[in-house]
Amino acid sequence: MGGTRRARSLGALLLAAAALAAPAQAQAPPAEAPSPGAEAPAGGTAEARLQELWARGERAFASGDLAGAERIFREALALDERRARSWNYLGGIFFTQGDLTRALEHFGKAHELDPRDVRACNNLGTVYERLGDAARAEELYQLAVLIDPAYPDPLRNLGVLYRRAGRMEDARRAWERYLALVPEGPGADAVRREIAALPPPPAAPPPVIPPAPPATSAPAQAPPAP
C-alpha cells in the first residue's frame, strides 16, 4: 500500500469495507478515547504516557512509517499489556500489511481483554471473513452490533457478508440500518450504490381470496294443510 493511502489517522484505519466489492476491512479504536472497558494502569503518569504513545503511534502511521508505529505501540504494550487498545492498534498494522496470522492474534487478544470493545470485535470479524470463516465473522459482527447498536461498521460488514452469501434481503436490511446511522458521506454513497445494484425485493404474493361458499338450495316447503 502506498504512502498516500497510509496517510490516514489510525483512528480511522481501514474503514470497514471501504470498497464494498473488496473484502471487509478493519478499524482501529479512535484516538480520542481508550477502550471503555479496559482496565487502566494505576497512576495518572502511566495513563498519560500511554496516551502520548498512542498519539505518537498514530502520527507515525499517518506518515507511512508502519515500522515506527509498530515500535511505538509495542512500547505502549510493554507499559501495560492489559490494554486492549494497544493490541488492537497492532492488529490494525498487521492487517494493513496483509499478515492475517498476527492480525488474528492481536485482534483476538484485544477482544479477550475487553469483550465489549466494539472495534476489536468488528476487526476480529474482518480477519475471520478474510480467512474464509464466514460463520465466525457473522457471529462477531452481530455481537458488535449488540454491544453498540450506534456503531455502524459491523452493519456495513454484515451487508457485504450477506451479499456474498446470496442473502440479498439480509444485505439490504443491514445496509439500510447502516444508512440510518450514517446518512451522509462517501460511505453512505457507496452503500446506496450497492443497495441500488441488489435485485428488487420479491413481490408480495397476491392476497388469497377464499372461494365463495357453494349455493344452497331452498328448503322444501311442506304442502299446505288441507
Explain what the structure shows.
This protein has 226 residues and is mostly helical. It is 58% helix and 0% strand. It is elongated and about 120 Å long.
List key phrases describing it.
mainly alpha; 10 helices; 0% strand; 226 residues; elongated; disordered N terminus
The residue fraction in helices comes out at: 55-70%
Structural class: mainly alpha
Strand content: under 5%
Distance between the termini: 110 Å
List SSEs in N-to-C order. HHHHHHHHHH
How many DSSP-defined strands? 0
- Radius of gyration from the CA trace? 27 Å
Number of helical segments?
10
Most strands sheet:
none
Low-confidence stretches: 1-42
**Average of pLDDT:** 81
| Overall 3D shape | elongated
Question: How would you summarize what this structure contains?
Answer:
The protein is mainly α and 226 residues long. It has ten helices and no strands.
Strands, helices and their partners?
Blueprint: H1 3-6, H2 44-62, H3 66-79, H4 84-97, H5 100-113, H6 118-130, H7 134-147, H8 153-164, H9 168-181, H10 186-197
